Structures are given as C-alpha cells and as structure tokens.
TrEMBL record:
The keyword DNA-binding applies. Gene3D superfamilies: 1.10.1660.10. This is DNA-binding transcriptional MerR regulator. Keywords: DNA-binding. PROSITE patterns: HTH_MERR_2 (PS50937). The keyword RNA-binding does not apply. It comes from Marinomonas pollencensis. InterPro entries: DNA-bd_dom_put_sf (IPR009061), MerR-type_HTH_dom (IPR000551), MerR_fam (IPR047057). GO terms for molecular function: DNA binding; DNA-binding transcription factor activity. Signal peptide: none annotated.
Length: 118
C-alpha cells in the first residue's frame, strides 16, 4: 500500500512515517518502480508495536534502541527481552500510581455524592 493509505491505516502522519524511516525505526521500506514507498503487513505490524511502546511511555530513544537490536538479529534476543522487561516494570509502577490517584478521586467523588462536603 502507498504512504497515504498506510498512514491512514496505522494512524500516523506521513511526516511521522518519513521521520521514523530517517532515524532508523522503519528500515528497508520497499519502493516501487517510480520510487514511491510501498508498505505491507510486516511494516503495519512493526509500526503497531512501535506505537504501543510509545503509548506505554517508552521514550523514542529506547524504541530506537530496541529497533536497532531487532535489526541486529537473533544474537540480541536476551538484550531485547531485558529492555522490554525493564519497560514493563516501569509501566507497572506507573499503573499502580495511576490506580492510587484514581482511588483518591473516587473517594472524593463519593464524599460529594454523600453530601458530606460543603
């Protein structure tokens, strides 16, 4: 699929996709005879994973590090695993913190509902 269709499908602007290609997150994007980028399912799955990492708070630097390790092949499996485990730990701490914030908000809302707050 071309850049416009791919951009709409993955929910990223063409500018972002070109930037990801420039910094090495999207390597080896195929081009057709006229030089236009052609994206497939492989790129769609990869961009989906990049987005998920970003949406869970992984800095672009770390995503790029993961991508570099991925590109290096099977010898980096353990290092990639460790990187994802570290990210998971941070994400779990963040979720716990958000749960605590939510609990306090729920308590405050309950006070308002009970009419015990002036």
């Amino acid at each position: 699929m071309n850049m416009k269709v791919f951009s709409e499908k993955v929910g990223l602007s063409s500018h972002t996709l070109r930037y990801y290609e420039k910094i090495g997150l999207l390597n080896q994007v195929q081009r057709n005879a006229s030089g236009h980028r052609v994206y497939g399912k492989k790129e769609e799955v990869w961009v989906g994973f990049i987005k998920r990492l970003k949406e869970t708070g992984m800095p672009l630097e770390e995503v790029l590090r993961y991508a570099t390790l991925r590109e290096a092949g099977g010898s980096t499996l353990l290092e990639r695993q460790h990187l994802l485990e570290k990210h998971r730990e941070g994400l779990m701490r963040h979720i716990e913190q958000q749960q605590a914030h939510l609990s306090v908000l729920e308590e405050k809302i309950d006070l308002y509902k009970s009419g015990k707050v002036a």
